[in-house]
Write a structure and sequence with these properties.
The complex is a heterotrimer of chains A (540), B (324) and C (219). Chain A is an all-alpha fold. Chain A has one domain: Cytochrome C Oxidase, Chain A. Chain A has 16 helices and no strands. Chain A has helices at residues 16-20, 25-54, 64-100, 108-130, 144-147, 152-179, 192-224, 237-271, 278-291, 307-334, 344-367, 369-375, 379-409, 415-441, 456-485, 502-505. With 324 residues, chain B is α+β, with helices and mostly antiparallel strands. Chain B has three domains: 2-49 and 68-97, Helix Hairpins (Orthogonal Bundle), CATH 1.10.287; 104-213, Immunoglobulin-like, CATH 2.60.40.420; 217-322, Cytochrome c-like domain (Cytochrome Bc1 Complex, Chain D, domain 2, Orthogonal Bundle). Helices cover 37% and strands 20% of the residues of chain B. In chain B, the strands form three sheets. In chain B, strands 3-2-1-5-8 form a five-stranded mixed β-sheet, with no helix packed on it. Chain C has 219 residues and is an all-alpha fold. Chain C has a single domain, classed as Cytochrome c oxidase, subunit III, four-helix bundle (Four Helix Bundle (Hemerythrin (Met), subunit A)). Chain C is elongated and about 75 Å long. Chain C starts with 18 loop residues before the first helix and ends with a helix. The chains are: A mainly alpha (540), B alpha+beta (324), C mainly alpha (219). At the A-B interface, helix 3, helix 8, helix 10, helix 11 and helix 12 of A face helix 2, helix 3, strand 7 and strand 9 of B.
Chain lengths: 540, 324, 219
């Protein structure tokens, strides 16, 4: 029985208005997914242009100005239009109600509003691109951003608006998780992806208001000269940095926590084994969310802040790393005495373990104040955050897409092509970014359109592999879309991987418009592979 | 072997604290490599050993999800490693910020897009920081406009330059030579060209240089002096000699247009002559050439009258068929 | 199932099991939202504290330029409006629709008076040039010696302005409540929107209770 004969959320109700005005969290999730992927490709294309320019030292393809606009837009689009909104927005929206046994999120109309607010904010970002760009960096440091003639206001306005979307989504998810679980689904029986969304949402609602007010103050500084961040008007540029990083450091946890949640789902299912240290992973999610608010000053080690601040921020920064380390070991030990399948989701999960470990460990270098003095604002930092954000979050996101694609669309993709693309992503990523650690150690600063001859060799390697990375990501995503577009679709059944959480055990692929035909009754825990054998509905 | 690795990873160790910083790096590096290998080996070993073999039935798997011993180790070993890293990082940092009493003080001013250095006995250089070796040097940093950051890789030292207050950094250079300085806080179009050099000289040589500062060019003919100043005063950051437009018009073009009208962005125009060149250097914002942005800083106070004359003379020589 | 049960109340959404779950969820989410509002204003309070610590004398002198009487009036007006809001909820719990509407109208009027007094204050400042940032031009005898007075007025206008915006939004919500209650959509059985907007209104009041002394009183 294919999905066409049965009613599911994709084919019912019909018509474009039923999509544009939908209150179905799964449809809203898909809208986030497609917008997110669109912005991801846009940001990625800009990155490739940057990399090609950097293959040689001078201004070969683009001028300084174009390059400076490019790196700013790359950062702003990736962070504000893709990673922060789209990953909780896409996977979170599609899966959360399913995982807690609810028919929808707590406030579906608010959910739709969140999506439109995000789209509206994104329009401002697009306007910025058409109107000549902005070159301040995604960090908008003052006084350059208060004095620059580029499109600072449209971009910050767009970010301000998208912030509301973030807050409303966070509120919705928290209310859903607290109040809409089916009977018997206690906190410690929740899938860890739900814990991850919970931690993410807590950070979203507490940190984003501060970003909002920072952007407002920046805009007012430009319009009214209020005198808060610009020294020429009596203000302080370092105060801006404090305000900005107070949000933006927790923001990186918004970016990584959902990814941790995805890995916590993939590894037990594809190893058919109970997750190691469930409670620990759950608690560490909350502690990372909390401690993440206390470390923002480690982005400011060269700003001239007091020695006391330097010591405190460095100290707490190390605290945040320890729970993360324990998680990595827990994920690895989950495979012990399991039955591991090397499916595409698992390939991405293993990739994640490798790449995120490097990213996390290189954070240790940066947390040591004396060493950070040398490394700050060099390519070492660029490599570090790409390892955690791309090698971590994006790789986990791709894994999550491959894991839940059959559930969301009722089709199975070509796993061989997917695995090859995953390998390409892994190799291309390392080739692109590992040389950048060396570039940074040797002194190559970041945000440079041109550079000294001594750095050309490493830059050329980085550029070459970035091409491989780009092609691989493109193939991986196209392979997924192809599974849905092609004529002879492959039916995966309701539980192709043998998962034990509610979305696998109690819904069809794709799910019914109202998720469950009857209220699901909880029969076992989310990872009880030691107690129950769950069959896979798809044999390769 | 450690030396070879140090050379591979890092630029030269020139300051007195560079080797300590590099050692801190290697401590973290080796610890990280060890942890990383455990992670990679662990995951490859377990995933392969416990793989689902073809045709094997699905079975109930182990209940084991907890081990006090292992979990304590994952916690305690990293905790010990980061504690050492933290303490070492702070102790080394304290060395880097407590300025020795016998340091000589040089004022560093960053502005878009060049560096000015003012020396204790008077005298100024642009884009060239000259210091004696084996002598603590204290730099007092500030900016004239937006944020900049002053980075000398070989000294392992960096500090932001703010427009509303002074920041301090110091180093003690142990090896003579010429080394890179980079700006490491984005400051606009010319950020990547805002480089400079630090020249470390033997103390005796430095004394000599300091006393001659400002007078060494007294005997040079004007146009030769102008050629020197073209790079020394950072004009080359924004103006080329080959006709190509950069942030500002090429000197070659200006030279070839000598005696002709130049049009400005407000529609007005003036003839290119000695007076125009002088005012464009001292009051650049009053006449912005059409098609360019008004970003040139003023050189008021940074050039003596003779130096101005030298630049004008140099400019005139660029036009090959010059009859000026 | 609850959503399809013809006996279930009109206002019960199909994805909730019962009215109690729906009510509990709304209340929970409202408090979470209040948290985000507190954080937004907290950021501005931090800016206030930083600038006060940098220009302590200027703050003391500049604040004397504010009209304490109007500020006090506003405080009384807003606290009273919180009282009438609470009374509106009490009335609807007793199913007294008329009284509830009356109290809501009173709340609305008090809010209007608040904004009216604010308008008087703002327009006076515009007249004499006590404006934020680069528009500041007031050079009266009591202010001519001040160091960077535009900063005080920047923070004053941003904080009272953002607060005033919340008052205006609250007025819009209360107007909707007046309509809804008058029409009989809200009763003692279901008055959740009134309660939620009431919580919001109390927050707006609370924020003013911090703003008033910080700007008008501390010397």
């Amino acid at each position: 029985m294919t999905e066409n004969t049965k009613q599911n959320y994709l084919n019912h109700p019909k018509g474009i208005m039923s999509w544009l005005l939908t209150l179905d969290h799964k449809r809203i999730g898909l809208m986030y997914l497609f917008s997110g992927i669109l912005f991801f490709f846009l940001g990625g294309l800009i990155a490739l242009v940057m990399r090609f320019e950097l293959a040689a030292p001078g201004n070969d393809i683009i001028s300084n100005d174009v390059y400076n606009n490019a790196y700013t837009l790359h950062g702003a689009i990736m962070i504000f239009l893709f990673i922060i909104p789209a990953i909780p927005g896409a996977l979170g929206n599609i899966l959360l109600p399913l995982m807690v046994g609810a028919k929808d999120v707590a406030f579906p109309r608010l959910n739709l509003a969140s999506f439109y607010i995000y789209s509206f904010g994104a329009l401002f970002a697009m306007y910025t691109i058409i109107n000549g760009g902005v070159d301040t960096g995604w960090t908008f440091y003052t006084p350059y951003s208060t004095q620059s003639t580029s499109n600072v206001v449209p971009m910050t306005l767009g970010i301000f608006i998208i912030g509301f979307s973030s807050i409303l989504t966070g509120l919705n998810f928290i209310a859903t998780i607290h109040k809409m679980r089916i009977p018997g689904l206690t906190w410690y029986k929740l899938p860890l992806f739900v814990w991850a969304l919970y931690g993410t949402s807590l950070v979203q609602i507490t940190a984003t208001p501060v970003l909002a007010i920072t952007m407002v103050l920046l805009m007012l500084e430009r319009f009214l000269g209020i005198g808060i961040f610009d020294p020429a008007l009596g203000g302080d540029p370092v105060l801006y940095q404090h305000f900005f990083w107070f949000y933006s450091h927790p923001a990186v946890y918004i970016m990584i926590l959902p990814a941790f949640g995805i890995i916590s789902e993939i590894i037990p299912v594809h190893s058919r084994k109970k997750i190691w240290g469930y409670k620990f992973i759950a608690y560490s999610t909350l502690s990372i969310a909390f401690i993440g608010f206390l470390v923002w000053g480690h982005h400011m080690f060269t700003s001239g802040q007091s020695v006391f601040s330097q010591i405190v921020f460095s100290f707490i920064t190390y605290f945040v790393g320890i729970p993360t380390g324990v998680k990595i070991f827990s994920w690895i030990l989950t495979m012990y005495k399991g039955q591991v399948s090397f499916t595409p989701p698992m390939m991405y999960a293993l990739s994640f373990l490798f790449l995120f470990t490097i990213g996390g460990l290189t954070g240790i270098f940066l947390g040591a104040v004396a060493l950070d003095i040398h490394l700050h604002d060099t390519y070492f930092v660029v490599a570090h955050f790409h390892y955690v954000m791309q090698g971590g979050t994006i790789v986990a996101f791709l894994g999550g897409l491959h894991h839940w694609w059959p559930k969301s669309f009722g089709v199975m993709y070509n796993q061989t092509v997917a695995n090859i693309a995953a390998l390409g992503v892994f190799i291309g990523f390392n080739g692109t970014f590992f040389p950048q650690f060396l570039l940074g150690l040797r002194g190559m600063p970041r945000r440079y359109a041109t550079y000294d001859e001594q750095f050309v060799e490493l830059h050329s390697y980085s550029t070459f592999w970035s091409g491989i990375l780009g092609i691989s990501i493109f193939i991986a995503v196209m392979n997924l879309f192809w599974s849905f577009i092609k004529k002879n679709k492959v039916d995966p059944g309701s539980n192709p991987w043998g998962g034990m959480t509610l979305e696998w055990t109690h819904t069809s692929s794709p799910p019914h418009p109202h998720n469950f035909e009857e209220d699901p009754v909880l029969q076992h825990g989310p990872y009880d592979y030691d107690k129950v054998i769950v069959e896979k509905t798809y044999k390769k | 072997m450690l030396d070879r690795l140090t050379e591979y990873f890092f630029p030269k160790q020139v300051s007195t604290f560079a080797s300590d910083i590099d050692n801190l790096y290697f401590f973290i590096f080796y610890s990280s490599v060890a942890l990383f290998l455990i992670v990679v080996f662990g995951m490859l070993y377990l995933s392969i050993k416990y793989r689902h073999r073809k045709g094997e039935d699905l079975k109930l798997t182990s209940s084991k999800d907890h081990s006090n011993l292992l979990e304590s180790m994952f916690f305690i070993i990293p905790l010990i490693l980061v504690s050492i890293t933290f303490v070492w990082g702070i102790r080394s940092y304290l060395q880097m910020i407590i300025v020795p009493d016998d340091a000589i003080e040089i004022k560093v001013t960053g502005q878009s897009w060049f560096w000015t250095f003012d020396y204790p006995d008077g005298g100024t250089t642009l884009n060239e920081l000259v210091v004696p070796s084996n002598q603590p040097v204290k730099l007092v940093l500030s900016s004239k406009d937006v944020l900049h950051s002053f980075f000398i890789p070989v000294m392992r030292s960096k500090m932001d330059c703010l427009p509303n207050r002074y920041n301090v950094m110091w180093f003690d250079a142990t090896k003579e030579g010429v080394y890179d300085i980079f700006c490491t806080e984005y400051c606009g179009t010319g950020h990547s060209q805002m480089g400079a050099k630090v020249i470390v000289m033997k103390p005796a040589q430095y004394e000599e240089w300091a006393s001659e500062l400002g007078s060494e060019d007294d005997d040079l003919p004007l146009d030769e002096l102008g050629a020197k100043l073209y790079t020394k005063k950072a004009c080359n950051t924004c103006h080329t000699l080959d006709g190509s437009a950069l942030v500002g018009p090429s000197y070659l073009q200006t030279s070839q247009m000598w005696g002709q009208e130049r049009v400005f962005d407000d529609g007005s125009s003036t003839v290119i002559d000695d007076n125009y060149i002088r005012s464009s250097i001292l009051e650049p914002m009053t006449q912005i050439v059409a098609g360019y942005q008004g970003v040139m800083p003023t050189y008021q106070g940074l050039l003596s009258d003779r130096e101005l004359d030298a630049l004008i003379a140099f400019l005139k020589t660029l036009n090959e068929d010059s009859q000026i | 199932m609850s959503g399809h049960d013809p006996n279930s109340p009109r206002h019960l959404k199909h994805y909730f099991h019962d009215v109690n779950q729906q009510y509990e969820t709304s209340k929970f989410a409202m408090w979470a939202f209040i948290l985000t509002e507190v954080l937004t204003f907290a950021g501005l309070f931090v800016a206030y504290i930083v600038y006060r610590s940098w220009y302590p004398d200027m703050f003391i002198d500049a604040h004397k330029l504010l009209d304490v009487n109007k500020g006090l009036m506003n405080t009384i007006v807003l606290i009273t409006s919180s009282l009438t809001m609470a009374l509106a909820i009490w009335a609807i719990q007793k199913n007294n629709r008329k009284l509830s509407v009356l109290m809501l109208v009173a709340t609305f009027l008090f809010a209007f008076v608040f904004l009216g007094i604010k308008y008087l204050e703002y327009s006076h400042k515009f007249e004499v040039g006590q404006l934020p940032g680069e528009f500041y031009s007031y050079m009266g005898p009591d202010a001519v010696h001040l160091n960077n007075p535009h900063i005080f007025f920047s923070i004053y206008f941003i904080m009272t302005g953002l607060h005033g915006l919340h008052v205006a939004i609250g007025m819009g919500l209360i107007a909707w409540l007046i309509y809804s209650t008058y029409k009989g959509n809200l009763t003692s059985e279901y008055y959740t929107p009134m309660e939620m907007i009431g919580i919001f209104w109390h927050l707006v009041d609370l924020i003013w209770i911090y703003l008033f002394p910080l700007f008008y009183l501390i010397g």
